Amino acid sequence: MSDKTEKQEKKISNLEQQRDKYIKQRDKARNKQPSKKKKVRGRYFDENKNKPKSKIRFDKDPIPINEAKWNQPKKQSLPAKGVTAVTTAGVNKLHTKVYEAEHDNVGTETAHRAELVGESAYRGGSKLIHEANRHIKNSPYRKAAKFETKSIKTNMKIDYQKALKDNPKMKSNPLSRFMQKQKIKRNYADAMRKAKKSGETVKKTGSVVTKVTQAVTNTIRRNPMFILTAGILLIIILAIMSLFTTCMSIFAGSGGVMGAASYTASDEDIDKAERLYTELETDLRLEISNAETTHAGYDEYRYSIGGIGHDPHELIAFLTAVYGDFKYDDIESVLRELFAGQYNLEFIPETEIRTETDDNGNEVEYEWYVLNIRLTSVSLMEIILPRMNSDQTKHFFILMQTNGGRQF
Asked: Hey, which of 76-80, 103-107, 319-323 has the most confident mean pLDDT?
């Protein structure tokens, strides 16, 4: 056996050991995942009675992450939902009125912004405890997905090294090596997606509470009692912060609430989000203007076109209030949903029966083909407001007041 072949064998062996290690860690994490008993009826052959029999056994059936009880939304009775809806609507309406009056009174504006921060901080304590608890319980799912992904990647490397070993000529051909590697990656791509998806938790908005939760996770793992202590300390700290914010606001206007009044996403992600929405609206205009070409053959084209356009600050303020430090790839589908809700373009064919007088003075009926091009649109505000809860709505209006700390 040549030195090169021996090195390849050793490399493959090391990769296989690494893969087996990841598989063991994956299985260990899976064993810690919650499960439920599943009744299974099995068949076996009774040699004494010389006939088949059935036997019931109970197997462990793993519970998917999205079915775990701590990842389920809290159920609320219909009366409670009604009270919450009325309360939320009342609070939003009250704050809207205050926003309208703020422009005429700097003191009112300062106090109101401090009040919003205080209200959000008060609710943050219980949310933090709930999110931290859920984060810990979902840990086995994330670990299993992590090691599953690593084992799949290692398998890819093993297959690639085996391909090099079986085809020595490929080493001297960079193009062949590249094509072989891409082929192996494609074969494993679906397994990779499934592995990563299995570790995803229920999608959460990018709130301040979520960011704080991620920051304290390591401490919580080492000391579960931190959850209770953190809740009490957080309420005290946030109360002090709220008081401090009020004092700062008196001397420095809105400076004390700059964190809540600024866009948190990167300029690149903000620009991409705004650019996509503008492109979608541009494509809509082009589709309308080209209607007589793309839908040729009609005698008449009738247009009923609603307004097209949006306030960029409304769009980015909504994304920031709901998703926090968002990434463009994560909110692209949301942008398309908003666009679909704001605009509805229809092409409605219609046939009219008309009459004309022929050369002999007789009235003759004929068909007149009409295409109605109808664009129904609403303001972006009408689409985004129902998608926000009370805290998010307050944050949204603060960002609208400050333009997210940007004047362009």
From this structure: 319-323
- Calculate ∠ Cα 268-272-273, nearest 5°: 120
- In this predicted model, what pLDDT tens digit does every residue of 379-399 receive, in sequence order? 999 999 999 999 999 999 988
Q: Dihedral of CA 293/298/302/306: which sign?
A: negative
Residue 162 has pLDDT above 90, yes or no: no
Among 329, 331, 309, which residue's Cα sits nearest to residue 321? 331
φ, ψ of residue 58 in degrees (nearest 5): -115, 120
| Cβ-based neighbours of 147, under 8 Å, separated by 6 or more | 22, 23, 25, 26, 29
CA distance 61 to 36: 5
In a domain, 230, yes or no: yes
Q: What is the pLDDT of residue 202?
A: 43
Q: Which residues of 170-180 are buried (b: 16+ CB within 10 A; e: fewer)?
A: beeeeeebeeb
DSSP states of 39-79: EEEEEEEETTTTEEEEEEEEEEEEPPGGGSGGGSPPP--HH
Q: What are phi and psi of 59, to 5 degrees?
A: -105, 160
Query: From the centroid of its chain, how far is CA 18?
Result: 33
Over residues 225-240, mean pLDDT: 59
Mean pLDDT is lowest, of 7-21, 152-166, 261-275, 372-386, for 152-166
- For residue 365, CA distances in Å to 271, 297, 299, 352, 360 come to 57, 20, 15, 10, 14
The answer as to whether 16 is a domain residue is: no
Residue 306 shares a structural domain with residue 335? yes
Q: 115 lies in which domain range?
A: 67-138+202-257
Phi, psi for 194 (deg, rounded to 5): -65, -40
CB 269 within 8 A of CB 326: yes
For residue 305, what is the enclosing H or E element? Answer: strand 300-305
Co-location of 249 and 300 in the same domain: no
Contact 144, 33 (CB under 8 A): yes
Q: 73-96: per-residue pLDDT in tens?
A: 666 555 555 545 545 555 455 555
| Identity of the amino acid at 251 | F
Q: What is the mean pLDDT of residues 326-334?
A: 92
Residue-level pLDDT at 220: 45
